[in-house]
Amino acid sequence: VRGLVRSPEKGEALRELGGEVVIGDLRDPPSLARACEGAEQVVAAAHSLLGRGKDASKFVDLQGHKDLIDAAKAAGVEHFVYTSIYPCDGFDCVPFVRMKQEVERYLEASGLSHTIIRPTAFMEAHAEAFIGKPILETGKVSLFGRGDNPRNFVAADDVAQVVVMVLTDPALRGGVVDVGGPENLSNMDVVRLYEEQAGRPAKVSHVPVPALQVLYRLVRPFHPGLSGVMQISILADRTDQTFDPSATLARFPIELTRLEEFIGKRAIAS
């Protein structure tokens, strides 16, 4: 296994496990060529949703991944696995989502053998970082919107299991694989689970959707990533965000992580 990282310390854990580390950057095409040289398969799982300036999403999520696909094709890579995003109704108006969709089309047109993985909202970001961490650290959290619309959260470990199965079993390669968690929970459900972990009620404030509709447009020129998060939050408060994993589990029989279990494991690890 070879990992492309931007600095040596980011690859230390992989190196300790016996993996090979290559220093590079999705914004640096020559480094992508070095990373892909001799590789049989490539897994693209980086993103820069909240990046700004030279790290802006358009340079990483869009052009960077196109350059990686080109490098993989030039190096004779046998199979390319791209981590995209689960397509909820109406989300194609969000720039980050449109970039993911454009990369999917670019990969499909490249002629490379490929599999597209589309996860729902990652627990590590959308549950833990945005909701759980503020509750555990300060006892307070601010939610975008009402937070009562059910949505689906998936653990990165579960997505990784699916990716490993694709990499190791040629019969599972190809097409699009939607990956989600075993339950649909609202953001307020997430708040309650973290309140139980904290052992105290949280002070919850809400940014109303009408305010978000104004804010995301005002913020976009200065911080397009944060603007995108606000725009996604508006949609998440209004549209169907639920996911049924049964079809995926029929093809990839793994045990999906429940959010309560995820929170408990993270608490033990910390």
Structural notes for this entry:
The chain is α/β, with parallel strands linked by helices and 270 residues long. The protein is 48% helix and 17% strand. It has helices at 12-16, 29-36, 57-74, 95-110, 123-138, 156-168, 187-198, 209-219, 224-236, 246-251, 259-269, and strands at residues 2-5, 20-23, 41-44, 79-83, 114-119, 121-122, 140-144, 151-154, 175-179, 184-185, 203-207. The longest helix has 18 residues, at 57-74. The model has no long low-confidence stretch (mean pLDDT 93).
Write a brief structural summary.
The chain has eleven helices and eleven strands. With 270 residues, the protein is α/β, with parallel strands linked by helices.
Helices and strands in order:
Layout (H helix, E strand, L loop, with lengths): L1 E4 L6 H5 L3 E4 L5 H8 L4 E4 L12 H18 L4 E5 L11 H16 L3 E6 L1 E2 H16 L1 E5 L6 E4 L1 H13 L6 E5 L4 E2 L1 H12 L4 E5 L1 H11 L4 H13 L9 H6 L7 H11 L1
Parallel strand pairs: 1-2, 3-4, 4-5, 5-9, 6-8, 7-11
Antiparallel strand pairs: 8-10
Helix pairs in contact: 2-3, 3-4, 5-7, 7-11, 8-9
Shape: globular
Please state the structural category: alpha/beta
Q: Give the termini separation.
A: 27 Å
Run of helices and strands: EHEHEHEHEEHEEHEEHEHHHH
**Helix fraction by DSSP (H/I, runs of at least 4):** 40-55%
Total helices: the number is: 11
CA radius of gyration is 19 Å
Low-confidence stretches: none
pLDDT averaged residue by residue: 93
Q: Strand percentage, roughly?
A: 15-25%
Q: Largest beta sheet, briefly?
A: 4 strands, parallel
Read across the widest sheet, the strand sequence of neighbours is 3-4-5-9
Number of strands: 11
